[in-house]
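Help!! Second protein's tokens look totally different from the first
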Amino acid sequence: MNFEGVKEFVLEKLRHELDPNLHYHSLDHTLDVMNAVERLAGLENVNNNELILLKTGALFHDLGFVETYDGHENVSIRMAYEVLPKFGYSESDIQIIEGLIRCTEIPQNPTTHLQKIMADADLDYLGRDDVFVTGQRLQYEWKMYGIVSTLREWHLKQLEFLKNHKYFTVSATNLREKGKQENIKELENLMYSKK
């Protein structure tokens, strides 16, 4: 598998073809998920071949946004099947990557160990200090696409999402759950402390 070739191909496509209104689902998000996948993969003791598949899944998971907002995962999967054989990926490799893309759909429903790592990496930021900065990008994006119209509506959706979210791997739980609970409290304070 020529991962470096795939990485160059995907990052160039994202740089040149993504809608500039995608403030959250951007090149930065893809790189952030790839970094989180690497960190979690190290903690979860995956082998080198599995790491390459995870990193490839991270690269492709939101690539479909270059064509569509709704149902972008299906486009990402189609692109993986079109592109990855040219870089030495086998049919079985691509099937695993398909599962890695699919498991990032909300609500997340990962079934394999690698899918659990991928799902956790995609929402790693929920337990980090930059949750509100990152969330602000998503709020702006959703406003541009008509998904939310007011700040209050955004905060309510964000709070509900955070409360219903769970990490799937022991490593992500250990690394991010405490921070996520603190972020929930901070958001509740923001919303309910003022009358």
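Here's the second one for comparison:
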Amino acid sequence: MSLSPIAFHGRAAVSPVSTPSADDASVWNTAAVEALYGLPFLDLLYRAQTVHRQRHAPNEVQLSSLLSIKTGGCPEDCGYCSQSSSHKEAGVPAGKLMSSAAVLEAARAAKAQGATRFCMGAAWRNPKERNMDELTTMVRDVRALGLETCMTLGMLEAAQARSLKEAGLDFYNHNLDTAPDFYGQVISTRTYQDRLDTLRKVQEAGLNVCCGGIIGMGETRRQRAGLIAQLASLSPQPESVPINHLVPIKGTPLEGAPPLDEFEFVRTVAVARITLPGAVIRLSAGRESMSDATQALCFAAGANSIFLGSKLLTTPNAPVSADLDLLTRLGLQPAPAQA
């Protein structure tokens, strides 16, 4: 299997009323996705909610927890990230890999709060072989609690992906971040093809793919459409798609990124739901600054997962009590565990 960036074409004469069906992933090019963005807001939400109800329990939200198992000191220069060794003014020191015992304790606490998936992230370009025994132990221990497991460790070799699969890892997260034609303005130390190559290795190992991006980094709507088109073109499509709203962090190159209109973010969630009908759409970073009304619109647009906990790696997240209260007020139920 070979993954490569899809071709970018001039805007085709695609009418909003003649966009492809949700199941026709092969024709979700940038122009077709951009046409979805151009639909009247309520028409777009109606279409997204229709697709959502065809594929997913309409009033269930999957609850996840995310733990930074190795923080700071990353050699990558991702412009949004405080953990890069290039962004020392962000004030995140390099730490060591947590012990599997400490990770297991955090997983128990997450489960007690209601999480059914436990995600573990390490600030690495790629894991070293000396790390693999500890990482696979973490997977086995967390999975033994009855939690789904996910890891994001940077680029993987094929043998590492197989080792994680054999240990019982359910999902591997590796985001595309943005469209190919905007990517170079955000990251220089890893190519777009590097990311696609890691996704290929993850898929070939039999792992479920968690892959999404970040909205609000200064990209255009067409570039947002380009990201969604890339995700929709993956074969198979990702089972899990996190949609992150940029959290501008002091000391990073994107600390002064212009604010994104909240309706544009909701539109992105809706477009992702339509073009990736079978995926769990994860309302991820940036919720802490969103109003309850905006989050409710995201659920109406097809988002059906959130992260619980006061922190997502190094950025703030909504309090657990506030999240559970919001779900109750909206009549939404936590999705049952699948592990």
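Reply: Different proteins will give different token patterns, so don't panic. The longest strand covers residues 60-70.
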